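Z., the sequence and structure:
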Amino acid sequence: MSKRITPLLLFIIFAFWGCEDQSDNSIPATEPIITFKKDIENNKSAIKQTKDGGYIIAGGKSGSAWLLKIDKNGEEVWQNTYSLGDFGYTRAVIQTSDGGYLYASWEGIVKADSNGVEEWKNESQEIGAYPYYEDVIEHSNGYYYAVGGPGGGQAQFVKFSSSGAVLTRKWFGSNCEDDIFRSITESNDEMLVVVGEKSHGNQSYDCAFNFMYYKDFWILKLKKNGGLIWEKTYGGPYMEKADDVVALEDGGYAMVGDMCSHNYNISTCVSVAKVLYMRVDEDGNLTEEKTFSGLKFLERMPYFSITTTARGGIAWTAEHKVHGTWIYKWGPNEDTVNVYSDGIGGFEINRTVDEGFIIGTWGGIIIKTDSELNYDENIY
């Protein structure tokens, strides 16, 4: 009897194991990549992804600073305004390590909690009518750093405490020369890298000289107290301006801005202005340079942004002179993709956790794409 039962038992055991293996090897369903295009009816839309997968958007509304929190699908969670003013434009909104938000503009800086309720505000300045902040970050040391200008023609660097007190304020560049810091990032060794535009001018010129058309890409590495480690400028005799910077995972930094070889005829910038991309190593030495024709030229307006892709490439956004919002992606492990969309020019681009991108535009259009810049074209 046992000889007849043993094969039956073996059959049952093997059948059971087969079921177990089939269950264990099943592939779980992956969550689909969410894409959308949304009109938030607000110009100059700075945007960052938040820890919950949604997004925080900053701009100006009804004469006040404005924050809008949306979820991962683009639906509103909350919005709030702050008596800071909406003069000018800024890319400067971040989520802070405590779950709140920090928004910096030309008029000052506001800290809000996770529900958008104001915690503190700092509108102090030393030179000029406004603090004129262009960008802000939270460093891994817990302090906030903002950059901007011009203060009597100089760029400024400010270090804030977590409660909003100014701990350090330093000025860079020369008086009367319209030098401006546009963007700041934490360096790969936990220092700071700042980029902007440095005028060619010298003190023999009167302050009324129009330096804005005679500038170079300007990149500096600073200590956490604002002390200078190194400083570089790149460009020719005419105009090259850096507007945004990103630290690269394999070392060095990538910058994007604009250039115009106007040959002293400023009106030609309308037709000859280009997007200018540069990459430098950890010591600020130039390692790569590219230009892209088709840029819409606008005086004084920072409207470029740059980020990295999940595969080590680069993506940037600007405004095309014919097609509006311009998004471009390339890299050694990337397909080159060139996309145009609504929105009157790109204002900010950031990589998202699903390897896609979130883009804010000058015209109030928010675009969420996948890794190849595809997105749902139906605006809502």
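The radius of gyration is 25 Å. The first strand starts at residue 36 and ends at 39.

Let me know what you think.
H.
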